[in-house]
Specification:
It contains one helix and two strands; from the N terminus they run αββ. With about 45 residues, it is α+β, with helices and mostly antiparallel strands. It has one domain. The protein has a two-stranded antiparallel ribbon. The chain is flat, with a radius of gyration of 12 Å. It starts with a helix and ends with a strand.
């Protein structure tokens, strides 16, 4: 498995876990044209 696939799965699992703990969580998609790697998910407590 490639690192990108592993990383994407991990990020989705983190968001699901945070949501189940009462956090609002969402995945962020980087802008393809900038080539940047920003924080891939965001969460905050309700």
């Amino acid at each position: 498995m490639h690192n990108k696939i592993i990383g994407n799965k991990f990020e989705k699992d983190v968001v699901k876990k945070l949501s189940s703990l009462g956090y609002w969580a969402t995945l962020l998609n980087p802008n393809n044209f900038t080539g940047s790697q920003p924080r891939r998910y965001y969460s905050c407590k309700r």
